[in-house]
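Practice record 12: protein with magnesium ion.
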Amino acid sequence: MTTRITDIQVILTAPEGINLLVVKVVTNQPGLHGLGCATFAYRHLAVQCLIEQYLRPLLIGRDAEAIEELWQLMHQNAYWRNGPIENNAISGIDMALWDLKGKMAGMPLYQLFGGKVREGVPIYRHADGRDLSELCDNIQKYREQGITHIRCQSGGYGGSGYGAAPAHAPTGAAQGIYLDPRQYMRDTVKLFDGLRSRVGFEVALCHDVHERLKPIDAIRFACALEPFDLFFLEDAIALEDGDWLRQLREKTNIPLAQGELFNHPFEWRTLITDRLIDFIRVHLSQIGGITPGRKLQVFAEQFGVRTAWHGPGDMSPLAHAANIHIDLASRNFGVQEWSGTEPPNFVIQTLKGPREALLDVFPGLPEFRRGYVYANDRPGLGVDLDEAEAAKYPCDSGVTTWTQTRLIDGSLQTP
Ligand code: MG
């Protein structure tokens, strides 16, 4: 008997104050359903509408086992392709179909990807601090947990929080998060110099520019950081300035990571075939889920490019699990960004809500132990959803402000 899709439901929940969007694909087999992540935290209502109004009617009655066919069907249905809202919507259903496939096979997903090549996934965490001393303290706390890779910065991306324009901005300049690129570069080079003096060279350190430099400044910045042996420098070049990566590559030997904003295969294809980057940082739901993610991982393997999938707080435990299952089975795995869980009483990141709430809503989140993350061996993604718990944490439909970054003359800068 063919397993057919009988319903597709959207569940919105924000147990940590971050809008999460879960997709549930229901089938004609009693008790058999799949769960996936379609989280686009700042456009969740648009993604919900797309799934409920367009993809649900498109897919009801179809064969739930035909993942590739259904992915292509969704991808081509609107004629125009590869927008972030569309891709996130498709991802929610795609991950749910893979979850279903694993449940039908009675296997965790990494088995369907060829089986484990490592028992646990090495992860990196973010350490911040108001000054070098506080940053070193936070790094030490992570190292005591066995974490070997740490992303470092001081004072958030580029500096201050959202608020009024500083005194040196033009009269009448709008509110925002004000960035002085020259000061940011000076402070960050000094920070890494201090870090290496204090913590030595054993720990692998990363830094994320978050696209906040002009290309020539990014080149100078990367060269200045070379003595500090970074594991990678992330998003030194903005998506729109991608052609500059070739010049950056020629000028520096610092390992480059790029790609959390990518939507379309054209954005990464040449970077990989021309070996202009070392780590591909794609956000799985942003490119349409596990199906394109696995294709990208296998493609990158052919060119010696490693994966470092995006793993921020604004994605659900289902998406973290999808990353981990691919990581477990990938030869060209580099490192995994992790914002999941640590042991109780070990939370040094600023969280907007109770950590326990996330685990109540999503039982089965892959477990962190001594520097590694382990998938559970339940079939599929291995993560469940408690819908009664999820309903306790409604999403916020307000307009976000954190993306309003401004340069010192008050003009907007990509966040
Ligand atoms: Mg990043």
